[in-house]
Amino acid sequence: MSADLSNTFHDELQSLKDLSGLVQLRVKYLGKKGILTAELKSLSSLPAEERKAAGKRVNDLKNLIESELDAKEASLKAEALKAQLLSESIDISLPGKSAGFGRQHPLSRVMSEIADIFVKMGFSIEEGPEVELDKYNFELLNIPKDHPARDMQDTFYVSDEIVLRTHTSPVQVRVMQRQKPPLRFIAPGRVYRCDADITHSPMFHQIEGLMIDRDITFSNLKAVLRTFVHQMFGADTAVRFRPSFFPFTEPSAEIDIGCFLCKQAGCRVCKSTGWLEVLGAGMVNPAVLENVGYDPDEYSGFAFGMGIERIAMLKYAIDDIRLFFDNDARFLRQF
Ligand code: FA5
Q1: pTM over 0.90
Q2: Count of other CB atoms within 10 angstroms of residue 224
Q3: 106-332, what's its fold?
Q4: Pocket of ligand 1 from Cβ distances under 6 Å
Q5: What residue segments make up the domains of the chain, in order of their start?
């Protein structure tokens, strides 16, 4: 009986292919209702003199089966691990996947290019908050509440007294309030207006400039801005100063450059005028100087402000401002 059982077990063990078969085999022989458990139970029905020898045979067989099942389990596990390692192996001699190089966003590039030009002319760099008091964004810049000049800039109001700054000009006031002249700085940053089409974005960037000292005149303004235009767009670029209006500068000017796409012959970008508007500027209004505690008889100065997106669109002939913010890698890779 034990010899037959042993043979059957060995045959079954031989033909085992995987671990789940082994579990079944273990249950079949050693489980609660398994063959050997039944054999052990049946010993009690044997005559006493046979019981001891029969018990030893069954126990020996049980131990043998147990140890062979364990050995088989170990070898099946080792085989499975070997197969898994083989299937997961990597060929370290294959070329790697390149993550690719990132690059600067075109707006950041243009922004640092502009900043570099002014830094070389001795301007330092200042910053101010994007969530700004109405007082700094408008009132101290000579734009009282309910003044029609407020309509020039569609404003996001946080509350009656707090706005998202509509331009970088409030930085002028903040710096003048905490420092005495001479002053010569630029202030780059994000600004916000309730405005959206292919040339206007609700969030865009400006660079402000301010120079205050004794005897600063419109000639200084012209010299600095001409130098900027020539360095940014090329030494042979035409520059034109056109009278304009800003409440915080008097007199005020809009600065145009000759359209470099059509060489001023007239094209779609310059709307056949031959000129492109790039900057707003002017002599700081004496009312603003008084608001920050400067004596307008002693000090004078000029200020200017430009939209970075506009400069970048002109420089790279981009006709839709939204491309800067869509973050399409195919667009960004070109710069
Ligand atoms: C101003 O914001 C003045 N603070 C500039 C200034 C500073 C004048 C100092 C005098 C002295 P303006 O509203 O024109 O001016 O805006 C300046 C530039 O910002 C515009 O020429 C344009 O290039 C850009 N701009 C205005 N609105 C948007 C917009 N929604 N999206 C993108 N660019 C804009």
Answers
A1: no
A2: 20
A3: BirA Bifunctional Protein; domain 2 (3.30.930)
A4: 152-153, 167, 169, 193, 195, 200-201, 204, 206, 208, 246, 249, 280-282, 303-307, 309-310, 321
A5: 2-46+54-73, 106-332
